[in-house]
Amino acid sequence: MRLSSWFLLSGSALAAGLIESSLAGSAPYPLSHVRPLLPGVVLLILLNRPQAGFVAAGIAGSISDLLKTDSSAFAIARWLMVAFMVDYVSEKVMTNRSLQAAWILTVIARLLDYILLLISYWISPIILQRTLYIETWKDFIVIAFFDLVIVTILFIGFTVFTKRFLISVPLTKNRYE
Amino acid sequence: MFSVILAIVTLHITSILIPIEDALRTVLAPAGHFVSYVGTRMYSRWANRDSINECQEKNEDLNHVLASISVDYVRLKALEEENVILRKTLGYLQDQEYDAVAAHVISRSVVANRAVIMIDRGAKNGLEIGMAVIVEEGVYLGKITRIQEHTATVTLTADLESKVAISKAGEHKLIGLVEGQGNGTALATLIPQQEVIQVNDILVTSGTEDKVPADLIVGIVNRIIGEPTDPFKNAALQSVLDPDSVDVVAVLRSQALRPE
Question: Among all residues of chain A, which has the CA nearest to that of B117?
Fold first, then answer.
């Protein structure tokens, strides 16, 4: 990746971190359930840029941990683990880079995030001697719905403007020629 | 990868990163406030989109409350004027015991049953855990429950972990506690049965708690709950402001704690 791309990525990750920490608590429902980081990370992994995905997860996670009122959730650790596992699934399980693959990876990412959040909810009283309050599964469903919307928009945007996900085999040609 | 994650978590738990975290939080606070402000403005606009019927119902309720408060206001105004005359007569110099430290909201809890905000003032500004946070010259919002160098976490009245001692407006006598119920509501509890309390009574802080001065408005009684045979009764409270639309708050700091 070029230096300008890294700057753009860092800026986007910063914005995503601020949205996850400061906007999510203030904005009205259902906008409060828009969480752009994980769909963004999934897309970067689909674009074969896992390092960029890890950097984005690290930057947004650290901002979320610093500014969120319920900061004991270790967002940075959670999101790095999610990015790592999504990259693993994308590499070892997924066979193509379609919109359906993006949807499945996004749902997997959100599920993993919620499972890790539940684990931090259970271990928080032991490690931090503090009860951690987490979102309900109903919130989780709304967040997952918005994840799918965001990843669809991002995927279509990338397809239209960069043609990265297009398979460049003309339909008129025989595939095995 | 996992060693990096483990290192971050360990350093966070052992509080080794606190100076770095504080410095970063200070740098990020203006951006956090801007984004939170945008969200708050969106919320305010969204919240004002009630239907006409809802608006009419609200208007009727508020008219009842206003009528009740107006009577109290007139009585209190007369008492205030009398008080001013008496103070002047006695040559009494009123001491302001508290400073108001203005602070911006930089983030809010995203969990539905929690009512917690983070503000951009902290220990460096002389703030301490337990200090009262107010808005609009005397409406009690909550207390500081966690503090960092340049930021602080405020637990609002509606939070499940919030408790504040209360009295009726104008009577400096502890009558019970206001406890948060989650979902944006609060309940006045442990009110002795013999205590006379009515719908539309204004409840204020009792001043019995350290760092929380008396006479800060906590809420208006909406409904009395309990049987006459119970030793205590409860009262559902209506907040006089929507904490989700608050962007600037003031922390009441004792003058003795004012930084040099």
Answer: A69
> Of residues B139 and A168, which shows the higher confidence score?
B139
User: Among the ranges A58-72, A124-138, B174-188, which has the highest mean pLDDT value?
Assistant: B174-188
Q: What is the pLDDT of residues A2-42, one digit of tens each?
A: 888 899 999 999 999 999 988 988 888 888 999 999 999 99
pLDDT tens, position by position, B45-85:
887 766 677 788 888 888 777 777 777 777 787 788 777 77
Measured between CB atoms, which of A54, A67, A74 is closest to B28? A67
Residue A42 lies in a domain: yes
Query: Does residue A170 form part of some domain?
Result: no
Closest-CA residue of chain A to B2: A81
Q: CB of B205 within 8 Å of any CB in chain A?
A: no
Tell me whether residues B47 and A19 touch, CB distance under 8 A. no
Extract long-range pairs of A140-144: CB within 8 Å, 24+ residues apart: A140/A110, A140/A114, A142/A30, A142/A33, A143/A33, A143/A35, A143/A110, A144/A106, A144/A107, A144/A110
pTM for this predicted structure: 0.80
CB contact under 8 A, A76 and B8: yes
- Per CB-CB distance under 8 Å, the chain B contacts of A84 are 1
ipTM exceeding 0.90, yes/no: no
Q: Domain containing A135: what range?
A: 3-162
- Cβ contact, residue pair B36, A22, below 8 Å: yes
Q: Domains in chain A: how many in total?
A: 1
Which residues, including other chains, have CB under 8 Å from residue A94's CB and lie 6 or more apart?
A: A101, A104, A105
Place of tokens 């699934």: A89
Question: In this structure, is residue A168 part of a structural domain?
Answer: no
- Nearest-CB residue to B47 (from A28, A32, A135): A28
Q: Give the whole-angstrom CA distance, residue A120 versus residue B211.
A: 33
* A117 lies in some domain: yes
Whether the per-residue pLDDT at A176 is higher than 50: the answer is no
Q: Which domains can be identified in chain B, with CATH numbers? A: 1-49+95-260 (2.40.10.340)
Asked if the model's pLDDT at residue B258 lies above 80, the reply is: no
Q: Do A68 and B38 touch (CB under 8 A)?
A: no
B204 touches chain A (CB under 8 A): no
Would you state the pLDDT for residue A8?
A: 92
